[in-house]
């Protein structure tokens, strides 16, 4: 076998004296004269292979001295408990095979001793991901996505997959990527919004999707991607309050699972997670305006009803909430109907505000959601008021004419969730192969 164990699976006491085979990358070779160490690295950590000059076969030592850093090797040897070694054990080798040589110089440093620029790292992402801090981010992301699936399955949600090639915009008309679709124009989908609502009419009742969304955002920021991953849910016979309750419970469950399952990765990143407290604080849009206008003097321009909450205001308000409550997560609810997409449900008694929310993290917006309009005629009216042509939405509007339950849902950006959880400086750190204004490869 090319491998009997991962490095992290070996128990110094229980496996002492056992013969095992490890495979991985040459993290480093330290030649101290009388003793040479080869540090082998795999996804789960590192193992020290120890070669004592007087005791080891000459050709084994020769192989180790010649092998270049980051080459792929297989080592079979005996486990020896050793308190001085990284995980409390070392491997006394019987055979060492170099399976694939790494050229030198390497395109970037993987030891963390040299700080590479983000661009260099992304250009050489395969190599960058060999750094344990980078591996840790994606180990945690894997746990987060599993936690979401478990949580939603437990709450009777069905995982669905909808098309990414579409004919219409959902989140406003400006930020679409057009593609050619035979002799017609089509677009990459900005959100599964219309599909997930149509599935409510189809009777699937509770659906979710974790999939790509495409947004032709022109700006180059630390929190925008042109291809992001959205965690979308839609639920029937529910209002915006039900949806918010599900969302805050989901976020807490995710944090709990990461704390429970990802301690080694959190330690690598030197992070201690604080599990958010339930229920999340709620501020109405109008309360936010009042606080911004009266209690946050750094914001010079007074805000008026209908204004969007800009980046600076969002940030300073996040600090305000954190200082007041000690919590990073909170909701802003009851947004002006005009600031939200056409599908958000206006309040019956105050149609200028809607049953909508943003879930915020101190650093940025994490999620938007709402109760949706489920009445056909009102929806048509809202589409027209947005300056859109209802005939482009026939396939969607039709599903509102033959029995549509009241429903609501949300979308959470997976990368923003990871970024805020791990306090990453740049959203690109949370994507394997990010797409931004300048980057189309790798
Ligand atoms: P030993 O008596 O175990 O051979 P040493 O103290 O005589 O060790 P060297 O053999 O020259 O020293 O080792 C050089 C360095 O490597 C020392 O700093 C030592 O602490 C360290 N070292 C020795 N053995 C191990 C081991 N098995 N794992 C990790 N570090 C070790
Ligand atoms: P919205 O447009 O707010 O809502 O998107 C939902 C969430 O997706 C993430 N997100 C992004 N992340 C990185 N880069 C981007 N360019 C980007 N754009 C969006 C954010 C955001 O909060 N259909 C609604 C959701 C719903 O109502 O169910 C929607 O798409 O975290």
Brief summary of the model shown:
This protein is α+β, with helices and mostly antiparallel strands.
Write the layout of secondary structure elements.
Blueprint (H helix, E strand, L loop, with lengths): L18 E13 L3 E8 L2 E8 L5 H9 L5 E10 L7 E12 L17 H6 L1 H4 L3 H23 L3 E2 L5 E2 L10 E5 L2 E5 L4 H9 L4 E9 L12 E10 L3 H22 L1 H6 L12 E4 H11 L15 H15 L3 E5 L22 E6 L2 E8 L4 H10 L8 H4 L9 E7 H9 L20
Parallel strand pairs: 3-5, 6-10, 12-13
Antiparallel strand pairs: 1-2, 1-4, 2-3, 4-5, 7-9, 8-9, 10-11, 11-16, 13-14, 14-15, 15-16
The structure holds adenosine-5'-triphosphate and aspartyl-adenosine-5'-monophosphate.
- Order of secondary-structure elements: EEEHEEHHHEEEEHEEHHEHHEEEHHEH
- Say how many strands there are: 16
Strand share of the residues?
25-35%
The biggest beta sheet reads: 8 strands, mixed
Describe the structure.
The protein is of the alpha+beta class and 442 residues long. Helix content is 29%, strand content 26%. It has 12 helices and 16 strands. The strands form 3 sheets. Strands 6-10-11-16-15-14-13-12 form an 8-stranded mixed β-sheet, sandwiched between helices. A 5-stranded mixed barrel has the order 1-2-3-5-4. A 3-stranded antiparallel β-sheet has the order 7-9-8, with no helix packed on it. The longest helix is centred in the N-terminal third of the chain and has 23 residues, at 132-154. It is elongated, with a radius of gyration of 27 Å. The mean pLDDT is 96.
């Amino acid at each position: 076998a090319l491998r009997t164990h991962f490095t992290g699976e070996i128990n110094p006491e229980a496996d002492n004296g056992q013969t095992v085979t490890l495979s991985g990358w040459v993290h480093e070779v330290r030649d101290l004269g009388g003793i040479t160490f080869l540090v082998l690295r795999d996804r789960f950590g590192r193992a020290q292979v120890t070669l004592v000059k007087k005791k080891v076969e000459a050709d084994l030592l020769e192989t180790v001295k010649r092998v270049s850093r980051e080459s792929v090797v297989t080592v079979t040897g005996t486990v020896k408990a050793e308190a001085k070694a990284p995980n409390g054990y070392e491997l006394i080798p019987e055979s060492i095979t170099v399976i694939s040589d790494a050229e030198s110089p390497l395109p970037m440093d993987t030891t963390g001793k040299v700080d590479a620029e983000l661009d260099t790292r992304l250009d050489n992402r395969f190599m960058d991901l060999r750094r344990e801090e980078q591996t840790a981010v994606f180990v945690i992301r894997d746990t987060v996505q599993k936690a979401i699936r478990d949580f939603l399955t437990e709450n009777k949600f069905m995982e669905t997959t909808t098309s990414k090639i579409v004919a219409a915009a959902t989140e406003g008309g400006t930020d679409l990527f057009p593609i050619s679709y035979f002799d017609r124009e089509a677009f990459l989908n900005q959100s599964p919004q219309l599909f997930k609502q149509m599935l409510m009419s189809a009777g699937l009742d509770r659906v979710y999707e974790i999939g790509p969304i495409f947004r032709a955002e022109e700006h180059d920021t630390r929190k925008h991607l042109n291809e992001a991953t959205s965690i979308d849910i839609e639920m029937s016979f529910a209002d915006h309050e039900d949806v918010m309750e599900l969302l805050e419970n989901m976020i807490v469950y995710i944090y709990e699972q990461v704390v429970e399952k990802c301690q080694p990765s959190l330690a690598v990143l030197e992070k201690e997670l604080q599990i958010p407290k339930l229920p999340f604080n709620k501020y109405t849009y109008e309360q936010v305006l009042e606080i911004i206008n009266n209690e946050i003097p750094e914001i010079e321009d007074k805000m008026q009803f209908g204004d969007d909450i800009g980046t600076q205001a969002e940030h300073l308000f996040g600090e305000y909430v954190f200082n007041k409550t000690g919590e990073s997560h909170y909701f802003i609810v009851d947004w002006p109907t005009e600031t939200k997409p056409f599908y958000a449900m206006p309040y019956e008694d105050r149609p200028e505000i809607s049953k909508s929310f943003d879930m915020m993290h101190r650093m940025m917006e994490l999620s938007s959601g709402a109760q949706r309009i489920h009445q056909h005629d009102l929806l048509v009216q809202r589409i027209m008021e947005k300056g859109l042509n209802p005939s482009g939405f026939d396939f969607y509007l039709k599903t509102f004419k033959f029995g549509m339950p009241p429903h609501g849902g949300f979308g959470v950006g997976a990368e923003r969730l990871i970024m805020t959880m791990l306090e990453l400086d740049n959203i690109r750190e949370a994507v394997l192969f990010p797409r931004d204004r300048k980057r189309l490869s790798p």
